[in-house]
Amino acid sequence: MFDGELIRNLVDYKNYWKSNEGLEHLRQNAIKMAHKYHYENNLFYNKLCKAKGISKDITTKEFPKIIYPHTVFKTYSIEEPEKSPEIFVRWLRNISTINFNFEIRKTTSLLDLLNQFYENNVLLGFSKGTSGKVSIIPKDRFTQIMTIKSYVETLDTVLGHNKWTTYRLFGMTHHMFLQIAWNFTQSFEGMKKSDIVLYHNTEKYNSFPNILKKHKSIYDKLTYNFLNLENINIQRLAKRMINELKKIDNEKIILIGSPLLLREIASNIIENNIKLKHSKDSIIIGVNGLRKIINLENIKVRPLINEAFENIPYLETYTMAEFNSLIIDCKDKKHMHIPPWIIPILFDENNEPLEPEGKVTGLFGFLEPIPKSYPGFILTDDYLTIDFDAIRECEVHTPIVTKVHGKTYKEIECSGLLGTLRRLQK
Amino acid sequence: MKINTYFIPPVAYDVEIKVPLDEINFGDHTLKLPRMTPEHVLEIISRMREFHEQFKEFSDDYIESKLRQVLMKWQDPNYEKRKISLQLLPKYTNYSEEVLNNFQFKVLERVIPESIDVDTLLKYAKKSLYKFSFWTKENMILKAYGRFQDKLRVRSIKIKRGKHKIMTLMSPPDAIGLLAMYATWIGFENRSGIIIKNPKCQPFFAALFAESIYEVDRELANMIFVLPWYIKNEQIDNIIFKNSDIVLVGLENRLNSKNDFCKFIKKKVKRSIWITSDIIVSCHGSKMGFDVIGKEYVNEDVAMLAVLDGIGYEGRMNPSPSLGIFVEKGGEYTPEDFAQFMAKQAKKISKLIPQSNYYRVNRERDLANIYASHIDKEQIYNEPDYDFTIIYDPNRKIIPSQNRIIRVIPVSHINEVFKLTKEYKKYYQTIGIAISTKRLLNFADRAGEEGISNLRVVGTTLLPRLKEVWDGHLPLLEFYMPNKLHWLSINTINVDDDISKLIKMINAEMTK
Question: For the residues A201-218, what does the mean pLDDT come to?
Answer without folding.
Answer: 62
